[in-house]
């Protein structure tokens, strides 16, 4: 008999999965942490999910499956990237969903990506769940194929499922370009970024984990993709808030954003330019009204970093 308070979490040692497992256990769940290699209490070593042959047994008795495992890193070898994305994101998701259905699991929660909708909202309205998918890179395309595979399995088996497409997830520590820029600010260097007027949606790690946990205990789960966020900021505002969290001042001054973007692109940093200057915004009403969940103001350190700001 399936215990609806037992959850399987793939990618349980990852950034989101580790936090989700802790949140579930604090809420009284028994968690099976699915990892590529490992053993111990509550640990399920599966090997490669795309080829593992013991998934049915590992999932027996689980009420909810949270599938977070996948491949996101891009290398310089496009062919290798495509093969890894296909196996780790698409095929593994299909096999996990099929195994969950055979094992009698009650529901399947899949963490996809906002990039399924595209890379930018420049020149258009913010993304919403009714927007047609338009994945551009191999990573987003593999996540879209994974979503389609999950829908196919659900249609054949009746497996209840939810798809979550989060934007950038923030936990208090910046990464990538933002981390590098904040490092410069902490050394007292001024940056010519005050003139950037883009809009990028984010979600705090605790808020995303809270939403995922809610989907495991809610009486019903929605039939539309979920696009969660808890704040929308420009690049300068994001830098100011992250710097404030680090106890630093953000010394920003304006230069024409178009000029700065052109210089980055000329230097072969087109992807960096897109992230710094482009918008990727989620609509304020993207989550269904009857979902029964709202982000918490203390679920994202960026919100508290600017007193008086409301969730956007």
Give a description of the structure:
This protein is an alpha/beta fold and 312 residues long. It folds into 2 domains: 3-165, NAD(P)-binding Rossmann-like Domain (Rossmann fold), CATH 3.40.50; 173-200 and 232-283 and 297-304, no CATH class. Helices cover 38% and strands 14% of the residues. It has 10 helices and 9 strands. A 6-stranded parallel β-sheet has the order 3-2-1-4-5-6, with helices on both faces. A 3-stranded mixed β-sheet has the order 7-8-9. Helix 4 links the parallel strand 5 and strand 6 (160-164). Helix 3 (78-103) packs parallel to helix 4 (138-157) and helix 5 packs across helix 7 (235-245). The model is unreliable at 307-312 (pLDDT under 50).
List the defining traits of the structure above.
globular, 6-stranded parallel sheet, Rossmann fold, alpha/beta, 312 residues
Radius of gyration: 20 Å
* DSSP helix fraction: 25-40%
- Strand/helix succession: EHEEHEHEHEEHEHEHHHH
CATH architectural designation of the largest domain: 3-Layer(aba) Sandwich
Total strands? 9
Relevant CATH superfamily of the largest domain: NAD(P)-binding Rossmann-like Domain
As residue ranges, the low-confidence spans are 307-312
Please identify the top-level CATH class of the largest domain: Alpha Beta
CATH topology value of the largest domain: Rossmann fold
Strand order of the largest sheet: 3-2-1-4-5-6
């Amino acid at each position: 008999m399936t215990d609806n308070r037992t959850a399987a979490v793939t990618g349980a040692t990852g950034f989101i999965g580790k936090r989700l497992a802790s949140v579930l256990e604090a809420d009284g769940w028994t968690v099976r942490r699915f990892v590529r290699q490992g053993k111990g209490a509550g640990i399920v070593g599966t090997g490669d999910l795309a080829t593992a042959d013991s998934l049915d047994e590992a999932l027996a008795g689980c009420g909810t499956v949270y599938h977070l495992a996948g491949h996101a890193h891009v290398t310089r070898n496009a062919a290798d990237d495509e093969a890894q994305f296909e196996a780790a994101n698409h095929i593994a998701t299909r096999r996990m969903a099929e195994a969950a259905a055979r094992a009698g699991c009650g529901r399947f929660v899949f963490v996809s990506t906002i990039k399924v909708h595209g890379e930018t909202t420049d020149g258009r309205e913010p993304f919403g769940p009714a927007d047609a998918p338009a994945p551009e890179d191999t990573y987003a395309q593999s996540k879209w194929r994974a979503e389609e595979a999950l829908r196919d399995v659900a249609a054949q088996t009746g497996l209840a499922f939810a798809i979550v497409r989060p934007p950038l997830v923030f936990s208090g520590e910046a990464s990538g370009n933002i981390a590098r820029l904040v490092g410069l600010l902490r050394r007292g260097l001024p940056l010519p970024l005050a003139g950037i007027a883009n809009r990028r949606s984010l979600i705090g790690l605790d808020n995303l984990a809270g939403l995922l946990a809610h989907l495991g205990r809610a009486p019903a789960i929605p039939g539309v993709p979920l696009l969660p966020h808890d704040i929308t900021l420009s690049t300068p505002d994001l830098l100011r808030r992250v710097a404030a969290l680090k106890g630093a001042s953000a010394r920003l001054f304006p230069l024409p954003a178009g000029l700065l973007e052109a210089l980055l692109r000329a230097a072969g940093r087109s992807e960096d330019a897109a992230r710094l200057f482009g918008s990727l915004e989620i609509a304020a009403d993207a989550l269904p009204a009857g979902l029964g969940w709202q982000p918490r103001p203390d679920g994202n350190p960026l919100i508290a970093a600017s007193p008086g700001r409301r969730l956007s």
